[in-house]
C-alpha cells in the first residue's frame, strides 16, 4: 500500500524513526555466556597446563585488549583452535574469561594477587585498577612490604606509592613483622636510607636493624658495620647512645660499629664542630605524609575579644567543625602537640596575662588543667621536644621576656631552662632537627630579624643566620627539613612574604608570598602542605586560611574558619591509622 503524504509540511515532521533497545548489549552478552556454558558455537579453547576454557573469539576480542590484538592481526594464534598460555594462574584466567561475558569479578584476599597478575598479562587495566584499590584498602604492617614488592613487579604505580607511604608512616610496626625479618640486605638498605620514616627517635631505626640481624645472626652479623652506618646515630640522645646502643653485644664486639657510636658522641660533645660533621647521618628523618587534624584554639573575635572556642580542620574533607571549647578564654596563646595531646599554654583572657595551662585529650574529648607555668606569658612561643613542652619568651603584662621553661608530663611540673639571648615577645618558635628555633619577635622597643636555636643537650642558645626581613607576630613551622616563616609585622607594614631557612646552607630564601597580608598568623604542616591560618591584615581580624603546595610554590585559599576571626593558636594531632 502506498502511504499518502501528510497534510503537514515535510519541513515540520521527520519522515524517519530511530528505535533503540538500550538493554540489548547486556542481554546479548548474557545470552552468549549461556551459550558458552552449553559448549555451543565456541570457536577457541584456551589451555593453561591441564586446564581448558572454551570461548568465542569475538567476545574475547571485544572485552580483552590482549585477545583483541591476538585475534585481529596476522598472529599465528588468530587461526588456531587451541591456544596454549603459560605463566598465569588458570583459576584467574577462568575468572577473567567469565568477566569478558558478564562484566563481573569477585575479588577477595585469596584471589586478588593472581587476578591482578593475570589482568596485567591480559592488559585489562580496569580489573588491575580494581585489584589495586582492593589491596590499598587492606594494607597492614604485616603485608605492606610484600604488596609493595608485588606492586613494583606489576608496575602498579599508585599501589606502590600507597604501600610505600604506609611503610613510612607505620615503620615501627612494620619492623616487627615477619616480612621485615625476611628482607634481604639490599632491601633493608633501601628502607634504612629512607628519609620519610615516621619515628619518634632514631633509636627506633636502630632497634629495627638489631631485630633484623638477630633474626639470622649467624649469617647477618657481618653486615653490622655497613648497616649501622645507615642509622643516624648523631640524632640519638647521648644517654641512649651510652646506656642502650653501646651496650648491645653486636656493637661492642665490632670496632667499626664502636667508631660510629664515638662519632655520634662527638657530635654532641663538640657542637661547634657540627658543620664539619654534617653527613646523611646527621639529617633528620621527616614523614610529611602523616594525616592530622588541625586544631585552631582561642584567638580573637572580629571586635578583639578573647575566645575559648576550638574548631578542627579535616584536610581530607576540607572542612572545619566546632570542637570542645577550652575552660579559659585565651588569645595570644601558645599551642603544642605532645603524645597526641594538645597543650594550650598561657595567653591573655581579656583582663590578665595567664600562666595557666590546659591540655586536650582527643580520645575523651575533654580539656584538663595542668600545672601552671612559673611566669605569666602571652604572645609566647611554644614547642614540644623530647617528651617535654617548652614555653619561650612572651609578655607578662609589664615587659617582654627572655626566660624559657619546660613542662614534664611525668612530674606535672615546669622547670626553668636557659634564657634566650634576647627578650622576645610575639616571636615564632618551632622545632627543627631536634633543636628549638626562636625567630623574630620584639622586646617592646624594636622588632627583630634575628634567630637563635636551643640545644637541649648543651642547654645553650646559639645565634644563627638572621631572616631577611624583621618580623613579629609571624607564623613558623618546620617542614621538609627546613624552617618556614610567613607573614608578621615589621613595624611599618603587615607582611605576606614567606622565607625558608636551610640549616645545611645556613641561609634564608624567599618563596611565593601568601595571597593575604597576615600578622598574628599561625603556620602548620600537614599532609605535605603548609597551612597559614587566620591573622590580621591591618584592617580586620581574618578567618581565612591559605594552603601552600611546595611542588608548585603556590598558595591557594581553602575553607575559612567558622567561629574564629584570627589570632588563633594552632596544633596538629596526627590521626592514628
Characterization of this structure:
- By secondary structure, the chain is an alpha+beta fold.
- Helix content is 27%, strand content 25%.
- The longest helix has 15 residues, at 255-269.
- The radius of gyration is 32 Å and the shape is globular.
Estimate the strand proportion: 15-25%
Q: Which strands sit side by side, in order, in the main sheet? A: 6-5-4-27
How would a textbook summarize the main sheet?
4 strands, antiparallel
Characterize the overall form: globular
**What is the tally of helical segments?**
18
Topology:
Layout: H1 24-37, E1 44-48, E2 51-55, H2 57-63, H3 65-71, E3 82-84, H4 90-102, H5 112-122, H6 125-136, H7 144-153, H8 157-169, H9 171-174, H10 178-181, H11 185-192, H12 203-215, H13 217-220, H14 224-228, H15 238-245, H16 249-252, H17 255-269, H18 274-277, E4 292-297, E5 310-314, E6 319-323, E7 334-338, E8 341-345, E9 357-361, E10 366-370, E11 381-385, E12 388-392, E13 404-408, E14 413-417, E15 428-432, E16 435-439, E17 451-455, E18 460-464, E19 475-479, E20 482-486, E21 498-502, E22 507-511, E23 522-526, E24 529-536, E25 541-549, E26 554-558, E27 569-574
Parallel strand pairs: 1-3
Antiparallel strand pairs: 1-2, 4-5, 4-27, 5-6, 7-8, 8-9, 9-10, 11-12, 12-13, 13-14, 15-16, 16-17, 17-18, 19-20, 20-21, 21-22, 23-24, 24-25, 25-26
Question: Top keywords for this entry?
Answer:
alpha+beta, 577 residues, 27 strands, single chain
What is this structure, in a nutshell?
The chain has 577 residues and is α+β, with helices and mostly antiparallel strands. It is 27% helix and 25% strand.
